[in-house]
Design a protein that fits this description.
mainly alpha, disordered N terminus
């Protein structure tokens, strides 16, 4: 399915309305105090072990969660983009170990690290969406979450390379996300199809808002761990 298959107007309007609603929280995420402290090299490298550990738990959970919604919507064209979300989780998960080892946490230690509720609430909400939400709930939410996560990840990558002198391979976990940027044109056909079959626009918007609130909670948790 592509943008020329049908009229995408309702979906594009929904995306724009959602962006207007989410701009304040997106700004909070992309201007987070944790990023400022990392740029100023105010966070000890060993403190980033928590970041590596929580990302390991989030991505590992993401593999299971997204596999569920791929299975639920495997009969619809949206299976294409949902499966791409799933395959991306496999790729980025493989890059966590190099970052973890660079900050003093071995590959074997990662599964044993404790989960922080405030950091992994993001995963719990994704599980709820994948079990009970519709395909477009996740697609719209990921449209905006990917945007802020990519911005933040690239900023972390630059700080790790320039301030903490990690190699490109050690910090690559953060750079790899730029390969998974979403666009309105790419997601709108799937959102349009969901609207046309009667899925709730209000639910899609609420899902996007909640996911970004949980995203902000993750960054708040990282800042608190660093004593900020």
């Amino acid at each position: 399915m592509n943008a020329n298959d049908s009229n995408q107007q309702a979906a594009l309007e929904l995306i724009e309305q959602t962006r207007l609603q989410l701009t304040p929280i997106m700004d909070q995420i992309t201007h987070h105090r944790f990023l400022d402290a990392l740029d100023a090299k105010q966070i000890p490298l060993t403190t980033l072990q928590t970041f590596a550990a929580q990302q390991y738990h989030i991505v590992t959970s993401g593999l299971r969660n997204i596999a569920i919604i791929v299975s639920r919507y495997g009969h619809l064209p949206s299976r294409t983009i949902l499966n791409e979300f799933l395959q991306a989780e496999f790729v980025v998960r493989e890059r966590i170990a190099a970052f973890a080892e660079a900050v003093g946490l071995s590959r074997d230690q990662l599964p044993q690290t404790p989960k922080l509720a405030k950091a992994t609430a993001f995963s719990h909400f994704i599980a709820y969406v994948c079990l009970y939400g519709c395909d477009a709930d996740l697609i719209l939410a990921f449209r905006f979450d990917a945007e802020v996560w990519i911005q933040n990840s690239l900023r972390v990558y630059r700080a790790l390379r320039s301030k903490y002198k990690l190699t490109s391979d050690q910090a690559h976990f953060f750079k790899i996300y730029q390969n998974y940027e979403e666009t309105d044109a790419r997601v709108s056909p799937y959102i349009q199809a969901a609207l046309e079959r009667g899925e709730s626009a209000a639910q899609m918007q609420e899902t996007a808002r909640l996911l970004l609130e949980y995203e902000l909670s993750f960054w708040d948790a990282m800042a608190e761990t660093a004593g900020l």
